[in-house]
Design goal:
Blueprint: H1 4-16, E1 28-30, E2 34-38, E3 50-51, E4 58-64, H2 65-72, E5 77-82, H3 88-95, E6 102-108, H4 111-115, H5 121-130, E7 133-138, E8 144-149, E9 161-163
Parallel strand pairs: 1-4, 5-6
Antiparallel strand pairs: 2-3, 2-4, 6-8, 7-8, 7-9
Helix pairs in contact: 3-5
């Protein structure tokens, strides 16, 4: 979780519920490691997003999924959800050579938020297809993609899942 207030709330939730199998990390995911600036929208913290370095906000540490996977020594990821208010393509690019370790992804693909970073739905679907994923949507949901690694042993027979 990149925003300090949201990260604090996440830590409190984990502690209050005594979740022993949850690790929290204060960082943004991107296509490069370093520092990014995140908006500070107060009560609308679920819509905070990466902003230009010159546009207010809060500095937050950033890392790539490839760096995180290597650091944590993950051999596989069963499910990855990406909802980063338009920064989705950068997160996918940061996965790099580790894409094959991911069995299934759920990715938000809102055209208006993707445009904020100069990408679009076709950029996301193209990257996923090139990385070896079959693409689906849930019936009636144009805002999200389900990407299933073609080499993963994942059941694709969900009645609400439509091939893209």
């Amino acid at each position: 979780e990149p925003h300090p207030a949201s990260f604090s709330a996440l830590l409190q939730t984990v502690q209050m519920n005594r979740f022993a199998n949850v690790e929290c990390h204060h960082a943004a995911l991107s296509d490069k490691t370093g520092t990014l600036r995140i908006s500070n929208l107060g009560r609308k913290d679920d819509n905070n997003h990466i902003v230009e370095q010159t546009f207010g906000g809060i500095d937050t540490p950033a890392l790539t999924l490839a760096d995180f996977i290597a650091r944590e020594n993950f051999t596989r990821i069963d499910f990855l959800k990406i909802d980063v208010e338009g920064h989705e393509l950068a997160v996918l690019k940061g996965l790099g050579k580790h894409a094959g370790k991911v069995a299934c992804m759920h990715i938000e693909v809102l055209p208006q938020t993707l445009a904020r970073f100069g990408s679009n739905v076709s950029d996301i679907t193209g990257w996923l297809k090139e990385a070896g994923f079959a693409l689906f949507r849930f019936a009636g949901d144009a805002d999200n993609l389900v990407a299933i690694n073609k080499s993963a042993n994942v059941d694709k027979t969900c009645p609400d899942l439509e091939p893209l």
